[in-house]
Amino acid sequence: MSWTSSFWVLLFCCNVMRVSPQCQIAQACITDFSASNCTAGQQWVPNSIAEGCCPSCVPSGGATPPTEGCDPNYSTCLPDGRYAPVQCKGDRFTGRCFCSDPNGRRIFGQMWRDQAQHMTCACSRRRAELEAEGKVVTLHCSANGDYEQLQCDSGMCWCVHARTGQPNVTPVHEEDMEFLPCYSASVIGERYLRKCESLSIANGFIRYEQSTHGTNFLGSPASTCDYDGSYGPIQILNGIAYCTGRDGKILGAWQTTVATMQGMNCNCARDTMIYFPERGMTVTETCEANGNYQPLQSVGSVYYCVDTDGYHTELFEGTPPDCRKYAAT
What is the value of pTM for the model shown? Predict the structure, then answer.
């Protein structure tokens, strides 16, 4: 086993012991946030935000309802009633397709609808399943949720079919990955793990060392990485959750406190600053302060609701509607 693989295992075990089995990312949330921060009608719940790693205040008795079965009138469903891996929204020109878990929750991977004919989300779906089982995963997925052609684990590397993940060459040691036909120096670089992943390993090792000596530094950053090894949309520093780009840099002024980041996804922030400009387009919807899409949007006297991905759901004239039900769809 290579030193990087050893660190992944060490980091995962450390976090499981220190937080909760709910935490599926390779980072613990180190914060001084406590029950005293909750107001009347709220209760302090550990491991309730930031992918199960951070505590928050939630309405008393108010747990997040489970996702209902797949409705073929609104979603693409499998014969067994689960959600298909690829879910598409909008028209062929401005619509996009997103990767989904079996319960219909969006996971890593997206593509513009007119380019998504061969999108499978096989890698994202598989990685989400493995993480849900509490496993440390080194799979790298491409931006559309398919497999990157080069995969490495436990010091060994091999090439795979992008749509299925099926290996198509004999594995070699990681130090020899440059001899694989799928290796690209411009894409991979000299190491398989990306900058965000390496930082997560380093921070996790520092926290492990601190915990073994009975100390914790409350200002330590909590970094999350996406399935392609880039920085995830949310990074936590000094009790503040920021929307960030794939390079880890903070996007605009979208932020909130750890205590109020329940449901934060930064979809609007990333669409505004990254995905739409890359296609030469502009986001016309309004973002909330935390980087999510504001559920209620308006053009003059016409009001409409949007879901968490910014796509229209209902139109109204006159009295503004209650769009909060779309804040979790």
Answer: 0.75
